[in-house]
Amino acid sequence: MKLVHAAYEPAGADSRPALLALHGWGANALDLLGLAPYLPGLMMVCPQGPIDVPDAPANAHGWYPRNPGTPPADAAIDAGVSAVAQFIDEAAPRYGLGERKIALLGFSQGGVIAYGLALRHPERFAALIAISTWLPDSIADSITVTPALARLPILIQHGRSDDLIEIGRARAAAERLRALNLNPVFRDYDCAHQITAEGLRDIGRFISEHTGA
Question: Which residues of the chain have pLDDT under 50?
Answer without folding.
Answer: none
